[in-house]
Amino acid sequence: MISMEHAVANPNIQVFDSPEDVARAAARRFTEIAREAIEEKGSFSVALAGGSTPKRVYELLADEEISGAIEWQHVHIFFGDERCVPPDDLESNYRMANEAMLSRLPLPSTNVHRMEGRGDAAASASLYEDELRGYFGNTILPVFDLILLGMARGQRVSSPTLSSKLPRHAALASFQLNPSRILTKKSGISKMVSLLKMHEKSSERQG
Fold this sequence. Notes:
alpha/beta; 6-stranded mixed sheet; 7 helices; 33% helix
């Protein structure tokens, strides 16, 4: 789990009535960050989250209404994690993202940098490090423009700043992070959006 105790700067926490509202807000924020990055430096790099929480965000991003606002030829897709399965497996994060979004976008195949889930996990991780270096160069700390995190009901956010403020509803947390902070040993981040599915209102009333 990623600790953000020293990295979060003025988190923008928005609370919505439903997961659908969260997904729409996240898709809008994704679009804003992508457009800003492309305008500023000609490219946008994002690490996608896996699991079911962000799936609706990806579907919305592929809709014509939203997708047309992004110059996808300048977007590079990475993955924050992957399961040790083939890319066509039902448990594959790549498969979910590809079916929900990637295959529906005018995105060059060379701009999709997926993890190899088959074979030895350590060897696959080393290959992905090479993939990252191929895009970011041999920098000590490559920095993504955006990293998406999805957290379903029952999971917790590691940041004390967040856990003390989050209500028991669906929420979107957007962070402006210091690029010099380390997300993992080999990657950094400038912005992060967390999609949080908390308890439903009805559950809250019952408890």
